[in-house]
Amino acid sequence: MPRAAVPGRVLAAWRVFLMILMVIYATLATEVVRGLVGGFGLHVGGVVVIVVSTMISMLAILPLGAVIDLPEAIWEYWLPDRRWQQGRCPCCGYDANRSRCPECGTPFARPASYATDLRTLRRTTLVVVPSWIIGLAAGLVMVNADESAFQREVAALRASEPELRDHARRRAWPADFSELTWNVGRGFAGPPPFDSPKTAR
């Protein structure tokens, strides 16, 4: 049976909107994971832990994959079923309470119900994977920017206070539950939150 097609612009806008949301999610997840596992500087071991952890966090949203099909579910299933219940052609909406629509030739029969399938999984993967990669890269850039800013902050403090022995501050949001530290003997570090010394706000 012919089905009403989703307007291309609607489909593209919906997929772009979902991708933006997932990129934001992956970016925030990357920063939160960095705060949880700790570390300072983008070393291979730390980056691998972040990559694996954010990949797992992205897998957690795969069950919501049917959201990717929302335009299809509305245009190809919900609207046709509503038209059919009103005695109109499920495909074009013409008053067609008869065996076949005189306008488009569609048989007057109840449309199939929406169900996820392998196409849904494929569409979801094509949105989630690029979103994860872009969000991961953006998160690592923001983590690196925060840690570089802390290094400059320490350098400026040491220039004005040569006797400075240590310094600490919270990481940038959303990882502000953990700290960045510097000690004249140990250098720069980003301990996990359960190792961070308590500092006054």
Could you name the key traits of this structure?
4 helices; mainly alpha; 201 residues; three-stranded antiparallel beta sheet
Helix content: 40-55%
Summed up, the helix count is: 4
Oligomer: single chain
User: Could you give the order of strands across the largest sheet?
Assistant: 1-2-3
Q: SSE order, as H and E?
A: HHHHEEE
Beginning-to-end CA distance, first to last residue: 65 Å
Largest sheet: 3 strands, antiparallel
Radius of gyration: 26 Å
Estimated structural class: mainly alpha
Mean pLDDT: 86
Low-confidence stretches: none
The number of E-state strands comes to: 3
Beta percentage is 5-15%
Broad shape = rod-shaped
Walkthrough of the structure:
52% of the residues lie in helices and 6% in strands. The chain has 201 residues and is mainly alpha-helical. The chain is rod-shaped and about 90 Å long. The protein has a three-stranded antiparallel sheet with strand order 1-2-3, covered by helices on one side. It is built from four helices and three strands, in the order H-H-H-H-E-E-E.
Tell me briefly what this model is.
Helix content is 52%, strand content 6%. It has helices spanning 8-37, 44-59, 70-85, 118-160; strands at residues 166-170, 179-183, 187-189. The chain is rod-shaped and about 90 Å long.
Which SSEs are present, and which pair or pack?
Layout: H1 8-37, H2 44-59, H3 70-85, H4 118-160, E1 166-170, E2 179-183, E3 187-189
